[in-house]
Specification:
The complex is a heterodimer of chains A (128) and B (554). Chain A is α+β, with helices and mostly antiparallel strands. Chain A contains four helices and four strands; from the N terminus they run ααβββαβα. Helix content of chain A is 34%, strand content 18%. The longest helix of chain A is centred in the middle third of the chain and has 16 residues, at 65-80. Chain A has helices at residues 2-16, 18-21, 65-80, 101-108, and strands at 32-38, 44-48, 51-53, 84-91. Chain B is α+β, with helices and mostly antiparallel strands and 554 residues long. Chain B has four domains: 11-114, Sulfite Reductase Hemoprotein, domain 2, CATH 3.90.480; 147-297, Sulfite Reductase Hemoprotein, domain 1; 316-398, 2-Layer Sandwich (Alpha-Beta Plaits), CATH 3.30.70; 413-553, Sulfite Reductase Hemoprotein, domain 1, CATH 3.30.413. In chain B, the strands form four sheets. In chain B, strands 16, 17, 18, 19, 20 and 21 form a six-stranded mixed sheet that branches. In chain B, β1 (50-52) and β2 (57-61) form a beta hairpin. Chain B is globular and about 60 Å long. Classes of the chains: A alpha+beta (128), B alpha+beta (554). The interface between A and B is large, with 37 and 45 residues.
Chain lengths: 128, 554
């Protein structure tokens, strides 16, 4: 019984575990955006024209993967400058809507508490 | 009535925690100034329970063996208001998490916590985590003795234990002292059950190798009876074998459950016995009776009033609450009251600062200033007078905390899931809310009886889905949330691992699937059978047929 279950779990793991790994190496056809967290308070930021903005809808959309990589490399100055942590690229639709649920929730805030997160704040093109 | 019967820091504890706060204050300052890189800082913040989650930093505060004083509860309310968004979240490890924390505030928060003898040490990282216990400890007549003195001894022994600061993986310990297991003992890396042997002597049954996550296992009994004075030596022997012999090359194979199930329980016992004999011979870990007595004295039971057993009667709402949320107390005229943080449609385990303050007042007024946090994300007033129950119920009603669903289908465990967690693949909370609303009718809940639903948003299983009578596991299927259904798990004394039913369900299908499974149970059950019993009798097939029936028709 125990073994059978573990086998099932293993099979399950093999079936689903690569889901996360798919993100990085898969050749993407989607446009991308660049995001990070601000060091001092953890707030989520998005890249725009060499700097960071607070709202995903104000962020820059890269249709050219090379341009996205250049922005990611440029963002390293803010990592070494101790302004931000963990910058990464993520896929969006051509209209800027994130492809993955994770990034939709990250950009908006918790779906179960609509009064919290970015969705509760005024978006006015404000930068950091 | 406001002096809780719990451990109080001595001068060493107080100094140690205060020094840790100042150490972390300096570390944060050095991180902000750039003296420390993120790679250097991350392990330091994790040692203080500080994660970077989906929206912000998250601070996990230890609630040792789930016991809180009213003073501590008020401090948590204050922190929620001043530094967070006015609420906190109780976890399945009986800790409290704040999800909207700013890094720059954390040293001040830790100082505030230290002022009420709390901290975040070892709430993260590959070390011995917060020790959990039966939430009815010290209050139930079933127990051989209060398990919390041993919890406190384990806490002191394992806090910054030099040999076990960098284990292969995290290590979770629970302690119980009753046949009825309310602390999910068999799902822990190591667990101690306080037992009495044939000679009438009290000692400890030690289990190890339980765990959820990617490869779930129920614990093995390592030793049926460990003498009182030997318990730390034995626990240390288990941890030492684990620390020395565990793999460290594959994060998915580094928990003690993998070691034990790879080398076999007999070989594990043999290795532990060898270390145990050595440790015993050295004698340095023998637990002196006077030290046990000193710690036990902190947890001495309150002086209960001499009262007759006289359970008050009330209206239907009160009677319904009594039916599920009140349990027998060791002292006549008293009761144990469970406050579920599971109002229909609310976030399981969430509590507002105002509710925390109000509950602190109730702890002082009704329960010797003390409360317990349960692994099912509920609270328990451990020592209340039966005659106070109507007043307690009325106050809870005003706080929207009088939901009469303890142990019922709407008393759902759910991890924060993709709404908050950086590791999650899918949301848990909205699924819990939808199912709770679906089964909100109380008559229907009573007709269904005991049914534990547990939901995790990823394979790491913080929501204990393997141990749910009905477990739900959120997965990511090409960027879309999908939900696996598991049946037949248990976190109680009859622990078992839930079996995966088959292909997953979409976000809008999962509640329907659960409902069809429950309907199948109601048709199939014999009188008096719980869902779990029926499942164990008839197996997966009838439930599977019911769950997928509508989908095939569609």
């Amino acid at each position: 019984m125990l073994f059978e279950n573990n086998y099932m779990i293993l099979m399950y793991s093999l079936a689903f575990a690569p889901a996360k790994c798919e993100l990085a190496p898969m050749a993407t056809t989607h446009p991308q955006m660049l995001t990070c967290n601000r060091l001092r308070d953890g707030d989520i930021l998005y890249w725009k024209d060499g700097d960071w903005v607070l709202f995903q809808k104000d962020g820059e959309i890269f249709t050219d993967p090379a341009a996205a990589e250049i922005a990611l490399a440029a963002a390293q100055k803010d990592v070494t400058g101790n302004r931000i942590v963990a910058p990464y690229l993520f896929d969006v639709m051509p209209d800027g809507r994130p492809v993955k649920e994770r990034e939709i929730i990250r950009a908006a805030g918790p779906t179960v508490q609509r009064h919290l997160g970015k969705q509760a704040r005024q978006t006015n093109g404000q930068t950091t | 009535m406001t002096s809780p019967h719990m451990y109080r820091y001595d001068e060493f504890d107080a100094r140690f925690v205060a020094e840790r706060v100042e150490q972390f204050r300096s570390q944060v300052a050095r991180r902000l100034s750039g003296e420390l890189t993120e790679d250097q800082f991350k392990p330091l913040r994790l040692m203080n329970g500080l994660y970077l989650q989906l929206h912000a930093y998250m601070l996990r505060i230890a609630v040792p063996y789930g016991t809180l004083s009213s003073r501590q509860m008020r401090k948590l309310a204050h922190i929620a208001r001043k530094y967070d968004k006015g609420f906190g979240h109780f976890t399945t490890r009986t800790n409290m998490q704040f999800h909207w924390i700013r890094l720059v505030d954390v040293p001040d928060i830790l100082a505030e916590l230290a002022s009420v003898e709390m901290h975040c040490i070892q709430t993260s990282g590959n070390c011995v985590r917060n020790v959990t216990a039966d939430q009815f400890a010290g209050a139930t007549a079933e127990e051989i003795e209060d398990p919390r003195p041993l919890c406190e001894i384990i806490r002191q022994w394992s806090s910054l234990h030099p040999e076990f600061v960098f284990l292969a993986r995290k290590f979770k310990i629970a302690v119980g002292a009753t046949h009825t297991d309310r602390a999910a003992l068999q799902w822990h890396d190591m667990a101690v059950q306080i037992v009495r042997n044939d000679e009438g002597r009290t000692g400890y049954l030690v289990m190890a190798g339980g765990g959820m996550g990617r490869t779930p296992y129920v614990a093995h009994v390592m030793k049926e009876f460990v003498e009182r004075e030997d318990i730390l030596a034995y626990l240390e022997a288990v941890l030492r074998v684990y620390n020395m012999d565990s793999r460290r090359d594959n994060i998915h194979k580094q928990r003690i459950k993998i070691l034990i199930n790879t080398i076999g329980v007999e070989e594990m016992r043999r290795r532990v016995e060898r270390e145990f004999a050595e440790l015993k011979a050295m004698g340095t870990l023998q637990l002196p009776a006077e030290e046990l007595a000193r710690i036990t004295a902190y947890f001495a039971p309150p002086k209960f009033e001499t009262l007759p057993d006289a359970m008050p009667q009330g209206d239907a709402a009160f009677e319904n609450w009594k039916k599920t949320n009140i349990h027998a107390h060791r002292a006549p005229g008293h009761a144990i009251a469970t406050i579920t943080l599971k109002a229909i449609g609310q976030v399981p385990g969430d509590i507002s600062a105002d509710q925390m303050d109000a509950i602190a007042g109730m702890m002082d007024a009704f329960s010797v200033g003390e409360i317990r946090v349960t692994h099912e994300q509920n609270l328990v007033l451990p020592h209340v007078r039966q005659k106070d129950l109507p007043a307690i119920f009325a106050r809870l009603q005003a706080l929207d905390l009088a939901t009469p669903n303890s142990g019922l289908i709407t008393d759902i465990i759910a991890c924060p899931g993709l709404d908050y967690c950086d590791l999650a693949n899918a949301r848990s909370i909205p699924i819990a809310q939808t199912i709770a609303k679906r089964f909100a009718d109380l008559d229907r809940q009573h007709a269904i009886g005991e049914l534990k639903i547990k939901i995790s948003g990823c394979i790491n299983a913080c929501g204990h889905h393997h141990a749910g009578h009905i477990g739900i596991l959120g997965v990511d299927k090409k960027g879309v949330e999908f939900y696996q259904l598991l049946l037949g798990g248990s976190g109680a004394e009859d622990a078992s691992i839930g079996q995966i039913m088959g292909p997953g369900f979409g976000e809008h299908e999962i509640a329907d699937a659960v409902e069809r499974v429950v309907e199948a149970y109601l048709i199939q059950r014999h009188p008096g059978e719980r869902f779990l019993d029926t499942y164990r009798r008839i197996g997966m097939a009838p439930f599977k047929a019911a769950a997928y029936r509508e989908m095939e028709a569609a």
